[in-house]
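Section handout 9: paired folding examples.
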Amino acid sequence: CPCCSVAQVPVAEGKSVQQTVEIMTRKLELLGAEKQGTFCVDCETYHTAASTISSQGQTGKLMYVMHNSEYPLSCFALFENGPCLIADANFDTLMVKLKGFFQNAKANKIESRGTRYQYCDFLVKVGTVTMGPSARGISVEVEYCPCVIANDCWNLLLEFMQSFMGSHTPGIPSVFGAKHDSIYSPADTMVQYMELFNKIRKQQQVPVAGIR
């Protein structure tokens, strides 16, 4: 799997999410990037069933079941600060059977959907992050196709991202630091999306916490 960086881009001042996405995609097109279809990454949250916690005295855990249109035959199950399981697409069916252990927090479903752009050896995906009916943020995934060792390509990724993200160019992803010289995998991309989705969820909760 080619190395990639997944980051959140703030909404431009005085603009909507959609207008900010259009500004970013216009910059890409001016650079010479070409549209290459669409993409979607989704994430459903499951929490440990109350009956399991009370009977076994365990603390509740969250599990995230994710899909990525780049890997249509796979399903990813991630624990926060834990392992990432890569299963085949019918893993969702298994989760229905495990509802005695894991409950689906349906209101927490979140996804990023948008357009893929190819520019030389880079693949860029600019997505609108939605929860329910409303747009909550913007994600940008930048992939450097020829490279599978994270530390070998960060400087190239950084330079390219600066060309269209400017001051919003992200720092090096935490998964890069953990990989050192090992091969980058699809799970590393999904961990980055999980972190981004959780960050956006928490941003939505801040005003509520302020009221309390």
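Moving on to protein 2 of 2.
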Amino acid sequence: PLEMSAKKPVPFLRQVVSVTKKVHRDPRFDDLSGEYKPEIFMKTYSFLDSIKKQEKEMIQKQLKKCRNVEQKEKLQQLLNRMTQQEQAQKKQQKMRERELSLKRQQRELAKQGKKPFFLKKSEKRKLELAEKYAELKRSGKLESFLNKKRKRNAIKDKRRLPSQKDL
């Protein structure tokens, strides 16, 4: 340490040796890591899908063998979560494919010399809904889906109406 005069008060924090502080990088927000492209990400980590599938099968086997109620409940929750994640991933993939097809159509129209036309969010939603109805019709589940929707809307309407107690 440096020799200090007794007449001057010693500073509270004195720099003996300068320490270089480590700078931590978060790859999610850093430009050095490159731009996130979901298509490339999905191709790179496609091997994870097979691993997840194996894990799901293993959990199903464990669920059949399990006798403990608490353990069985935990396994069931894990299985449900895995299936929900799988469904969400499929839904996201469908949306990506739909957007890509729309972009391709726009490019083709632009090549033909027409002005590009971009859909609004509401129009995209309508197209998505029409596609969903077509899928339900093909699978034969349209009636049950519509019945459930009617019941749900009826319950919502009942809630909105003033009750007899208020009158």
